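User: Just a sanity check before I run the rest of the batch. Below are the structure tokens for the first item. I only need the designed sequence back.
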């Protein structure tokens, strides 16, 4: 796992770290390429965003196709359990995973 330049680790919460470790353990086994790159952690975002509080993170899997990412999504969700939300979407910065710890 690597962190993109200029990504702030401020306010990073242990629950978020655990989620990243779980996802990182799955990515190389199921995708070509496989190295995870954290592209966004702490940032100011709109109302309801968990990024400013350290409970949300965006990442990509280097070398993985969009199809591989869509296929790995349910595997990661299953391993993460019900207190995490994980989506794969194209929001502003291109296709990426958005992981958040949100035990509602």
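Assistant: Here's the designed sequence for the first item:
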């Amino acid at each position: 796992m690597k962190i993109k330049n200029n990504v702030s680790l401020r306010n990073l919460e242990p629950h978020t770290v655990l989620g990243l470790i779980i996802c990182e353990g799955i990515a190389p086994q199921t995708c070509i390429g496989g190295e995870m790159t954290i592209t966004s952690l702490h940032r100011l975002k709109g109302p309801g965003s968990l990024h400013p509080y350290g409970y949300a993170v965006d990442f990509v899997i280097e070398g993985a196709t969009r199809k591989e990412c869509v296929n790995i999504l349910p595997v990661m969700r299953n391993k993460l359990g019900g207190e995490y939300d994980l989506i794969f979407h194209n929001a502003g910065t291109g296709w990426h995973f958005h992981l958040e710890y949100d035990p509602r």
